[in-house]
Amino acid sequence: MRIAFFGDVIGRSGRDGLAEHLPGLRRRLGLEFVIVNAENAAAGFGITESTARELFEAGADCLTLGNHSWDQKEALTYIVREPRLIRPLNYPILADAPGRGAQLFETEAGKRILVVNLLGRVHMDSLDDPFAAVDRELEACPLGAAADAVVVDMHAEATSEKMAMGHFCDGRASLVVGTHTHVPTADAQILSGGTAYQTDAGGCCDYDSVIGNDKEEPLRRFTTRISGGRYRPASGPATVCGVFVETHPGTGLARRIEPIRLGGRLSQHVPQVDAVAAE
Question: In 122, 181, 229, 270, which residue has its Cα 20 to 30 A from 27's Cα atom?
């Protein structure tokens, strides 16, 4: 399968950037499934039905969330009605969080892809153990048997926790990719067991910013320790950041991973592939 994953979409700029570039990327790369982290899609805080609809119309097949899942209260009811929207799997059982933390999708060609969303615990909200949660999910839906591909979105602050999750899932997932820090890392690789990995996919946002936000308020807080108001998404042209993964037929493990960086201020990189998917 040919799969693309895009990091945190931040505000209007990120949504517009994805709408501009994703349809062409789907055709050029022969993408069979597209996953987008959308927890900052609504003015930088959470997601709404209308912002989710924009991303689906742009070409996303599935949206994942993170620590801002419920910033927009309508998300609590929208996620119940929308199976393509996934929140972190490792909410405590007693929380009775709405929606799903993992979902098995079927592509138009009949291929099955499991998408799992996790929230880290280092310098983040204290949820249940993400390692135990993903272990149960991967045991219940094994790669190469119940699923043709498995993608894990590890929404976490600490690079060490993300890397540990990559190795924990190695050989059992097609891709483990980090989100949340909004800056693409330079470590795209295939781990020893065959799982593609990148510590952070980066943000889909204006990079003339502080992690996607207008510079003034973060700078004020860092230099004076006094808040002057809410963070606001930067509004310049977005760079669309993500990863492209191609899997082996049969095993579902990765045979290729490359970063995607298109538009805006960052150096542009789009994988070079034939227009028609290999499998």
Answer: 181
